[in-house]
Amino acid sequence: MDESQLLSVFKKHTGYAFKDGQLLVNALTHTSQVNTDRQNNERLEFLGDRILALVIAQHLYEDSPKAREGEMALRLNSMVRKETCAQVARNIHLDELMKAFAGKTAVHKGVFDSQNVLGDACEAVLAAIYLDSGLEPARKFILSAWKDMLSQDNVIRKDPKSALQEWALARGLDMPVYVEVSREGPDHAPEFVMSAEVTGKGKKTGKGTSKRAAEQDAAEKFMTSKKIKF
């Protein structure tokens, strides 16, 4: 896939047409790609993370006039976390685009299935749109891409680790214990396996691109296995 095809397919999936195609190219270029003069997406990801937080925070402030600061903070965190960004990336087919456009410049295309890589690419694309057209088009893009999750998030969902801790404390059980099981992958895209255990109630393992993400995954699997709502 060449640059013109990349821009065309991106527009087809998202409705947004880049004026400066190099911005999208950079946004979808991961550090694992070799033999290329492209700039990777790390700087764009940094900027996109802040743009996303601003847009979602403003939306929550305006859309929920009676919500308290703590409630808005919880919703904001759930909307900007890496897992959510990765899901948005899949929804707009960034994983497929990155694999197709990478060609032979990636060490291994499996890296584009990583939640961390997809989440970073999603944030980088937001920054690319901002630099290409300004804040208002970026805001419209974000609110459209996050629309379903924002509308489904009226009931605040605790993060799995907090929910599991509250569940254990409410039943007089020991606090959940998290242990690192393994760490695999290269430094730029590690994968951690962590276990979550509540004494006498079982243990589950989870994966993530950071220890915290793996702990959250393990806690969520524990809660799901016990049919505990959170």
Automatic annotation (TrEMBL):
<dbReference type="InterPro" id="IPR036389">
    <property type="entry name" value="RNase_III_sf"/>
</dbReference>
<dbReference type="InterPro" id="IPR000999">
    <property type="entry name" value="RNase_III_dom"/>
</dbReference>
<dbReference type="GO" id="GO:0004525">
    <property type="term" value="F:ribonuclease III activity"/>
</dbReference>
<dbReference type="GO" id="GO:0010468">
    <property type="term" value="P:regulation of gene expression"/>
</dbReference>
<feature type="domain" description="DRBM">
    <location>
        <begin position="159"/>
        <end position="223"/>
    </location>
</feature>
<keyword id="KW-0378">Hydrolase</keyword>
<protein>
    <recommendedName>
        <fullName>ribonuclease III</fullName>
        <ecNumber>3.1.26.3</ecNumber>
    </recommendedName>
</protein>
<comment type="similarity">
    <text>Belongs to the ribonuclease III family.</text>
</comment>
<dbReference type="InterPro" id="IPR011907">
    <property type="entry name" value="RNase_III"/>
</dbReference>
<dbReference type="Pfam" id="PF14622">
    <property type="entry name" value="Ribonucleas_3_3"/>
</dbReference>
<keyword id="KW-0540">Nuclease</keyword>
<feature type="domain" description="RNase III">
    <location>
        <begin position="7"/>
        <end position="134"/>
    </location>
</feature>
<dbReference type="GO" id="GO:0006364">
    <property type="term" value="P:rRNA processing"/>
</dbReference>
<keyword id="KW-0694">RNA-binding</keyword>
<keyword id="KW-0255">Endonuclease</keyword>
<dbReference type="Pfam" id="PF00035">
    <property type="entry name" value="dsrm"/>
</dbReference>
<dbReference type="InterPro" id="IPR014720">
    <property type="entry name" value="dsRBD_dom"/>
</dbReference>
<feature type="region of interest" description="Disordered">
    <location>
        <begin position="198"/>
        <end position="230"/>
    </location>
</feature>
<dbReference type="GO" id="GO:0003725">
    <property type="term" value="F:double-stranded RNA binding"/>
</dbReference>
<feature type="compositionally biased region" description="Basic residues">
    <location>
        <begin position="201"/>
        <end position="210"/>
    </location>
</feature>
